Structure formats: C-alpha cells, structure tokens
Prior knowledge:
Radius of gyration: 50 Å
Structural class: alpha+beta
Number of strands: 25
Number of helices: 23
Distance between the termini: 162 Å
Amino acid sequence: MAVLGSHVYPNWFYEAPLVLSEKSSAARIDWMISVLERSRIAQRENEELIEKKIALLRAEISKQEIESVLSLMPAAVYRCDEHGRITFFNRRAAELWGREPRLHDDDEKSCGSIKLWQTDDTSLPAAETPMALAATTGKPIRNQHVTWERSDGSRIIAKVDVDPLYGPAGNLKGTLNVFEDISESEKAEEASRRLAAIVESSDDAILGKDTNGVITSWNQSAERLFGYRAQEIIGQSVTRLIPSDRYDEESNILERIRRGERVDHYETVRLHKDGTSVPISLTVSPIRDRNNKIVGASSIARDITERKQTEAILRQVREDLARANEELERRVQQRTAQLERAHAAILREIEEQKNLEEQLRQAQKLEGIGTLAGGIAHDFNNILNIIRAYASNIEQRRAGDDQTAGDLKVIDEAISRGASVVRQLLTLARKTDPVLARADVNEIISSLADLLKEIFQKTIDIVLELGATREILADANQITQGLLNLCVNARDAMPDGGRLVLKTKVVDRAEINNLDAHAPAYVCIEVTDSGMGMDNSIKDRIFEPFFTTKKIGQGTGLGLAMVYGMIKNHNGFIEVKSRLQHGTSFSLYVPVAPPEQRTLADEANWQNAADEHSNGPRRTILVAEDEEPMLMLLQSALSRRGYNVYLARDGEEALGLFEAHKDGIDAILLDIGLPKLDGWDVIQRVKSARPAASVIITSGYVDPEFKTKLLETGVKGFLDKPYTIEAVLKTLQQVLDKSGRGKTTETRSSRAEIAASTAGAALQPPDGQVP
C-alpha cells in the first residue's frame, strides 16, 4: 500500500496474479482499466489536497506580509471584526494607544477602553465612534477629527479613516481603521492662523516681498497706510510705493537682505496711492525657507507723521523756551545784583540763586549747538551789516582816493570772510539750507591745503596739482567739508606718513565712462593717498550710512556718506579706486557752471530802472530796525533815492506808524528781531489789517523752517545780513514793481493825491524823525 499524509492507498495491482490466472483476457482488460481509473481518481484527489495546502500557505504568507507592511506604517492601523473587537494592530497603534490593546476582547470593542472626545470637547460614546458607525452602517468614514485620550491621560488630535471589510459572500466581516496623529500639524495650523490674525490686526503696515522686490503679501494696515487694496498691489514691484529719487534705498535694502542682514527703524518716505508722501519708520527682515535659504523679506512700515509733527512742535517749544530762558537770565541777574547789596543774612538765598543759575546754564547747553549757532549768527551778522553798509556809504562818497578804495576792499573782504565763518557754523549745525554760487575749485582747495598743512602731522606730504579749471555752481562750505572728510580718512590710512595729492582738471563728458555723467563737462577733484587701501568688499560699502572699519569711538560711519550726499546735491558723482597696500583715490565730478546770464547791460538796465523810479512818484517805506546806526544809514540812503521813510526802533513803534499811515505805506522793511514786539507779531497784525501789504524781512539769521512759515504769511522778500544798500534798493524795487503791476490808473492817481495831501505834517514820523 501507499500512505500519503492521513490517506492510505491500496495497491490494486497486488491482486493481479490471481486475476490473471482465473479470468479471461477480456476480464483482465476490464479489470486493468478499472484499476487505472481508480488510480487516476486518487491522484487527482491528492493533487487537489496539495493545491489547497499551498493556497492556505500562500494566504498565510500574504497575511504576514500585509501585517508586516502595516506595522511599518507611520499611521496607527487596527482591524476589527464585525463586533468591533480588535483582531490586529500595528506598532504605531500601540504607541498611539499608550499600551498594546487586547485582541478579541469585548472590553476593547470600538475603542471602548479609550476615551474619545469630539472637536467641541464633548465625550464621544462608544456606539458613535468612527469604527462603530462603519461596522453598523457598512459605510466608510473619511477624514474625521477626534481627540484621543491616551492611557497616561495625555490627549492628542487624530484624523480617522475607516473602511468596512466584506467577505467573499458579500457579508460584513469587520472594519479597517487608520488613525493619524495630527496634533503637531493642528498646532502649526493654529499658530499660522493666529499669526495671520496678528498680522491682519496689527496697526503697522506689514507686507512681504521676494528677493526681487515683488510684493507677495499685504495686510489691512498696509491698505490703510498706502491706499492700495491687496488685489491691486500683490504681484507689483515695491518701487510703486517709493519716490523716484529714493530708488537707491530699495536696491541697498534688498542687497542687505540677500546677505542675511536686517534693517531696523530706517526713517524714509513712501508714496500713497493718491501721490502724497507718507513719512514712515521701516524695519525689514529676511524670510528663510526650511533649508535656511533666503526667499524674501518681511517689511513693517509705521506711520510717523504725527511724530514728525510733534517734533516740529517740540522744536518750536524749545525756541520759545530759549527766549524764556534769556528773559529769565536777565531777571536772575537783576535779582542777583539786588541780593548782593542786601544784608548778609540772605546770603543763603544768593547761594540758592547761584544754583538756579547753574541749572539754567545746563538747560541752555541742552538746547544744542543749533540754537547757539543761530544766536551767534544773528548778532554777528547785525554787526557785519552795519560795517558793510557804512563802508558802502563811504565807497559811494569817496573821490578818487586809491588808498581809501584799497582799505574799503580789505574791509569788504573781511566782512565776507566773517559772513562765511558764520555760514560755516550754521551749516555745521544744519541750521541753514545749502546755497549754490559760482566758485573756483582751485581757490577752495588751496585754502583747504593751507589748513591741512597746519593740522596734519609733518610726515604727510601734501601735494597740489591744480590744473586749469572752470567755475562750478557749489556751496563752498559743503565742498570744503566733504574734501576735509576725505583728507582726514586719507590721513588715518597713513599712520606712518605718506603722500596726499589734491588734483583738479576739466573733463568732457565723452571722456567719462559713467552712466551718471549727463553734463557737457565736469570739474574733477582727485584726492589720492598712498595709504593701506581697501579690498572690494569694503569699497562696495563705504558710502553706506554708519558703515565704518574704524574702532569704536574713532568713527561714526557718516563721513563718506556725507561726501556722497554732498556730491549728489551738486548733481555730480564720485568714483573710487583702491587696492590693498597701494592707496586709495577718490574722484569727485562736479558739473561746470553754465555761462553767467547777467551782463553789464543787465546791470545798466537795472540802474536805469532805478533812476526812472527815483524820478517817478515818491514811494513811502516803513523801516523797523533796532540798530540805531543802521537805521540812520537806511533813512539817509533811501531818502537820497527818492523814498519817503518812516523809522521805527521797536515793534510797537512800527505797528503804531503802520496803523496811522497804512494807506500811504508802500512797503515795510522789517527786522525780525525787534524789542517790545517781535517781527512775527508785527507781521501778523499788519497782514490782518492789510493782507496785501508788501513786507521785506531783514535778519542776521532766520531758521529755514521759520523762513517757510514767514513765506506762508505772504512775506515778499528776505535780506540776509550783512547786506549792502544796493541790495536793499534792488529788493525794494523788485517788490514794489511786482505789487504795482496789478494796480489801476485810478489807484495810482488816488495814491498820488494821498502823497500830496500828506506831504506836510502827515509824513512826519513821531519823535522828530525826518522822513
């Protein structure tokens, strides 16, 4: 027999000898055929049994492979039967559970031993869990979020997907459950939502841009500040918000962002949608991706309009405080004199008064060098004005005396130098606007070289190579200051001595390889040293504000930035050449001044017009000046020119004369710094009584902001001290000509009648003054 597994198969051929010996041949054949058929049936049964065992083995292997794959998945996977009992779980499921769940346990059905919470923080019953619903309804569950309380009491947020499992007959056999821990992503999304809410609710304008300056995000405050809606501006270049004269700022900012640097509280100006300027404080930070690569920038813009206005008010308050301090100082001095003459018992009060004086002096120091410069300028220019006016008067009366002419020329040059010193002081204190005038570069450099030879160490050889140059339109003080900054840097680059060369030449535009060259010709000023030089990384940044290679306390980083700003103000440009250990050369290009338009014929025409005026109807001028010598000289000079003159020595007297003769006064020559009632109050009352009154301001110093304020009231002209009588006459003629253009013949006739009727006592000023 044959034995295979649990089956026994007999050998039918064992009976063959008996059969063969007793049966006929036909019987033997039938028997043999039946034996073969039974053998084949047994073989087929054996093969089917083997195939079933192989199929079961393969199914077991496939199951193990699937479970192995599921065990490696980062998501938690459970398989439940039709009753919700767990029949399989992977490694991540045990981690999510906090322990290994028990298989085929009724207590674990549908996660019954685990607390599940809904998004509104209410408990989720076992019958309503995603696994229970899928097993009950036979429908899949997709992307349901639940809160899972683990065995240790901690909670996580899970995303649940459940699929029902069916048998071959279509019957529901259970569910396959996938749980994914999304706590971190939910936290990230919540943080992102909070950040977006913070950005949207911020009072500051917050916008994002890429490294090319294209706007990528825009909050509501940006819309309020600049006027553009997000859909209008996103995708546009940020230069749409920048005035054309400030495009360089954006390129510098983007370059710093690409280097990973940050720009903090940079004050600048940007444009509103309606074209108005908005002063802002700008902070720009680089934006990096997950690989730490810079992909853009975040800009925070804060409107500082109110702060600027407050600063202007504060400056005015400081000026008022300075005037109050001066008055208080005067009173303190009077009181101190009285106390010094008093009884010794009040010496303690004197000591207290001295302490008060010291506090006042400290407070005055805190007002800064600007206020000091303005006060010096006013008083000094008043003195220079008297000297220049009387020198001019002597010049007109001299009769061919060459010695006197020479002396007067020296006086005039000294006055000009004094005025220049005052202007340099004001410019240094930033209390005046730059004034462009025709200047000779060689003269400026020669004067500067004399100064450098006095202050630089003798180991530095200062060489002048001054070529034939032409005049430029420049503020000589700013040019001198800029060149001085370059020379000081050159000195610092040569600590052991060296050679400093100052060179000038004229260069045609065709010879210049620079895109900023637009003028036909330029005067080139070269400042070259033999110092340590610099590499390209430093040379590319030397004009950045606050960039310096000097040690702390040895430099502010503003010197070269000021030189750059100065040369830009003069419509020029600057080039730099430098190599390490081979020195540095700065080339400043300033446009050649155009030919003067004023000719001798123009001067003659002006003189003829002045003569014509002197022969015409007499005009009446009110002169208010607290300097008695200047007042007398103006009265004499204007009278000789055919003017009727009223003289006032303080503001109250000037206002009284105006109110008495306002219909007969053609112009007012008013010193802004008058006693009793200052010039500003006089102007306001005059304009209130007669808005069209022609007022010309004279002063040793007027702050630029105050000058703008005066222009807004309708002041017709300004005369800065020291001035000449010719300048006074010319200004008066220009103002009177402009104010007289719109008057009718009838008005001029009535003015003539008034002048005739007041030729006697009406034109006599008070206190015996002679008009």
